[in-house]
Write a structure and sequence with these properties.
Length: 433
């Protein structure tokens, strides 16, 4: 039996619920169905936070949901869901779902190709137990404004605890992405992962390699664009999950545990977080460029050492590293292309003579590549004087620019040569990539 928390026993305020979600709930109720908010929105409402979207569940079957709403589309082949459209906002309405995976177990009863009965649908209780974390399985009932809890989610919520429903190892094996979700929610909400839910992660992190790369790309975006990328990154590394997502980068980081690569990456993530905090846009390609930079830089250096010119070396290294990364996370073209551009423009910043600086300035990806180079300089991996030169060069008048080029006014950094020497020494002692 569920524990039911009446309206006076919880603090969910309807003023934080979207009007459209309320409309959907009331319409379903009026048509004689049960209707609940569930999942992340209930979890966030209990914290007094405004949820980013609202998920509704009901005992109405998809066809019945459609008959209640005019502005409704059914989506999904394996498990049908209803999308109720209100201009920009879509409220997702799902039917209570049974525990068993619908592919293996459901017997669909078909007549002339139409589904008459589909055992993928279940009771509210079954629906609760197939969810991932207890705090994600709370139901806000529109008929009496109570919260219905089958899994002890309210107690865990009060204790700020992320706890898997059921046997943790089994639940991670069923869907290894739950490990990433545990970290995303724990960091975002300031919750701790229950010891029994945390324990299998180190052991099972490698299972992520079996997940389709497109799904992992989506998860990585959610993880890094949550506004808490710095902490998320630390937690991912702590549980070995980062190594499953970005193995080339992890190899570089563990080789130089306190070196430039980590400082650079931490700084890029910090910057992402503060931009999100200020409501400024962040370019996902910039993040990916930063995440994979050290493997690219190291590979390019090897190619340069073996005689390739630097521009070619960065292009070649970029292609190699992206190809390797695609086995782990997909990268849509809209990200892969600019990532490569940002990288391959890096060696061009060194070329401050003749017409080259003007050509670089006119490159459509100049701005991002420049920001990237400044970040490298700030973290000690590129020459700060070079960064400074480019900062001045951009805003200088034409006459000043010409004189900057003629005079070679950049005191071609001793710092840079020295750092590079240190680097080379370090990489000689390191095991080969
Ligand atoms: P947010 O939308 O804030 O990121 P959320 O908890 O709503 O968080 P969704 O991915 O929107 O996350 O999923 C909605 C709900 O569906 C979850 O709260 C959970 O109950 C269930 N769910 C989602 N993914 C899984 C999964 N991999 N395994 C089990 N249940 C899941
Ligand atoms: Mg959600």
């Amino acid at each position: 039996m569920p524990r039911v928390y009446s309206r006076s026993e919880h603090n969910i305020s309807r003023s934080l619920v979207s009007e459209n979600a309320l409309k959907v709930l009331y319409r379903l109720k009026k048509a004689g169905f049960e209707a609940y908010l569930v999942g992340g929105c209930v979890r966030d409402l209990l914290l007094g936070r405004e949820p980013k979207d609202f998920d509704v569940v009901t005992n109405a079957h998809p066809e019945q949901i459609r008959s209640v709403f005019r502005n409704c589309r059914l989506i999904g082949r394996r498990f049908r869901l209803a999308h109720v459209h209100f201009g920009q906002e879509i409220i997702e309405v799902a039917t209570f779902r049974a525990l068993q995976g619908e592919e293996e177990h459901s017997e669909r009863v078909l007549e002339n190709g139409r589904i008459l009965r589909d055992n993928a649908y279940g009771s509210i209780e079954e629906d609760a137990f197939r969810r991932d974390f207890t705090v994600n399985a709370l139901y806000y009932n529109i008929s009496d404004f109570s919260v219905v809890d089958f899994v002890g989610g309210m107690d865990d919520h009060k204790a700020s605890m992320m706890r898997l429903i059921g046997d943790p190892e089994q639940r991670y094996r069923e869907d290894p992405v739950r490990m990433l979700r545990a970290i995303r929610f724990a960091v975002k909400l300031g919750f701790v992962i229950h010891q029994e839910s945390a324990e299998p992660m180190l052991r099972l992190a490698g299972l992520l390699r079996e997940i389709p790369s497109a799904r992992l790309f989506d998860e990585v975006m959610k993880l890094l664009l949550s506004g808490y990328a710095v902490q998320t990154f630390e937690q991912l590394r702590h549980f070995n999950l980062f190594a499953a997502l970005f193995p080339d980068t992890e190899r570089c980081l563990s080789r130089e545990p306190e070196g430039f690569p980590l400082i650079f990456l931490a700084k890029s993530l910090e910057r992402t977080d503060s931009r999100i905090a200020e409501n400024k846009p962040v370019a996902p390609y910039f993040l990916f460029a930063a995440l994979l930079w050290e493997p690219v830089r190291a590979r390019a250096q090897k190619l340069i050492d073996s005689g390739m010119n630097s521009i070619q070396a960065y292009q070649e290294a970029g292609n190699e590293i992206i190809t390797r990364q695609l086995r782990h996370t997909a990268l849509p073209k809209s990200i892969g292309l600019p990532v490569r551009e940002v990288w391959s423009l890096q060696p061009r910043f060194e070329m401050t003579q003749g017409g080259r600086p003007f050509r670089l300035l006119g490159h459509p990806r100049f701005r991002a590549a420049y920001d990237f180079m400044v970040l490298r300089a700030e973290t000690g991996e590129a020459d700060p004087e070079l960064a400074d030169w480019w900062t001045r060069f951009q805003t200088a008048t034409e006459a000043e620019q010409k004189s900057m080029i003629r005079s070679g006014s950049r005191s071609t950094g001793r710092t840079r040569t020295r750092k590079r020497r240190i680097r080379n020494k370090a990489s000689k002692n390191a095991p080969p990539a």
